[in-house]
Amino acid sequence: LGLFLNLLLVHLILNATRTRIGSYKYLQIIFVLNDIAYSSYSFAMQGKMITKGHTFTLFLTSRYGNNLHLVCIDASLFSLILVIVSFNFLYRYWAVVCPDRIQLFSTGWFSLFLVLIAFAEFAAWYCNSFFMYAASDEARADLVPEFAHKYGLDARTRAMIMGDYWRDGHYNAHPLIGLAVFCGILSAGFAFMMFCSVSILRHLSQGGESISAKTRKLQYSLFRILTVQTLIPLLFVHFDAGQVHILPSFGIDSSVLDWCSMIVSFFPPLDAIAVILLMRDYRETITSLFVCMFWNPGANHCVSSIFVSRATTIILNSERNK
């Protein structure tokens, strides 16, 4: 479902966007493509989480999932959501506060710079998972009953990343360092997004006559969409992953946490639905499509006409603005 809805959203972004949003359209496509990659990988690899005492573990239940590198990729993919959302906030911040800098998003060197930042963040998350969350033999032995009962797997041989925070009466340094890195990356991303949000709202509310009513309305609308796009992964991905990482370090054991992998799977479809409903161009296109399909006998012709009409409108608007 998440894959279908996000592919639909890509189609709408490319063919039904009449509002002038510049390069922001391509940032939205990158965000959606990341959702598609995350959805596809999660569906193929079937990542699961188990917590017990001071220990949490992430592993893959698919046929080909018994590979530590694939587990680390699974742990790192969702982290890209944070950095791509941050890029979207940077664009919105510049669009409102420093419009002259928007052109940087159309330059090759700046695009490459953003790609390098995303790659560095992914690599940091991957290395942190690989080196700091190594599974110990003692913790593996403790998890044998849970693995066998819930998934029919052998915890002693299954590839996994593990936060075994407390063992033999003392805390273990490596997973605690990994937890600090995890929290540091998340905190930096959230702090940047909070700064951009406050600056955007302050500028829009105090902009006076320097910002037209139409521009202010558009910027508020785009900021609202970005906020929802951020809150959905925050609640369904980062909050769940955060509690799975953090709570076991305090010895909080709850079987509810084992459902986090299922809760995380809700994120891609909900994110796509939110954007489609909040963006007027996409909402109207989907509404017209449903009206055509269910109330018009010539549905096939009607459906094609809708997208041709949308594409023609976009082309005419771009020609007028040249």
From TrEMBL:
Q: Which organism is it from?
A: Pristionchus pacificus (Parasitic nematode worm)
What is this protein identified as?
G protein-coupled receptor
Gene3D superfamilies, per database record = Rhodopsin 7-helix transmembrane proteins (1.20.1070.10)
Q: Name one Pfam family in it.
A: 7TM_GPCR_Str
